[in-house]
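Give me the fold.
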Amino acid sequence: MVLLVTGGAGFIGSHLTARLLDSGNKVVCLDNFDEFYSPRIKQRNVSPFIANSSYSLVEGDIRDTDLLAELSSKYRFDHVVHLAAKAGVRPSIQDPFLYEDVNIRGTLCLLECFKDKNLKRFIFASSSSVYGNRNTVPFSEEDRVDAPVSPYGATKKAGEIFCYNYHDLYRIPMVLLRFFTVYGPGQRPEMAIHKFTRLIDNGEEVPVFGSGTSQRDYTYIEDIVDGIVRSLSLDSSFEIFNLGCSRTINIKYLIEVIEKNIEKKAKLNFLEAQPGDAEVTFADIHKAETLLDFKPGTTLEDGIQHFISWYIDAKEDLC
């Protein structure tokens, strides 16, 4: 198979690329090496692939319609896995127009480019952020998702709507994957597990917003990649899936696990809760278990151990 992976130099994209190449596929990575975090991290992510003849790295923007047209003419893609996005809840509150432009218009540019290319599958990376704050858990794909609490979540919901629209108009086979707090080796530096680990390691204060009782469904990267790969061969024209561990962890316990593995104590600084943050995320994964045979197998305790082993080895390159 030949796959276009947008955002392929990022955290999830590079792990997915490794799996796809190991399985004998050809991968074209499209990434703009955005400076949201150090481009050196993305360069490190893709360095193992550069010499692989089945891998092509294209530095560019998903909003560049001329570039997309050039790629779609040069390669006969079987699948597009659209991971590229401006990520992060809190930054989206600071600059909602940028998030709207990249996440909505960028997705629309891709859909327009590939609407008549006879793709076998278009995979869209959505987010648990579309659920907003809910009174009932776990979150089901059948729940209404019309009240996200951040611009980031709103852009992901808009992306889902456009994906359905293009499926309906042009019969593009679609799978929409709602990721729940993905972590593991290579995780972005501003995300909680990576950030907390770095601060604890450096003896700096760890900011805890609210009481420390907020809960997240943390999902290990290899489990997420497994769900993406399984969705490529799904015999269905349009589906939405939650991909999560289906276990909630509060911030205090998360910090305790990090402390144990890095063998240092955290200096906690409790702050007011931040707007845009959901109090809980919790994935109902029954549908993914049933239709994708999705079986997340990595516990938080094991996943943190894997992450910190990577962090200790890589931290000099992360500065």
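The chain has one domain: 2-318.
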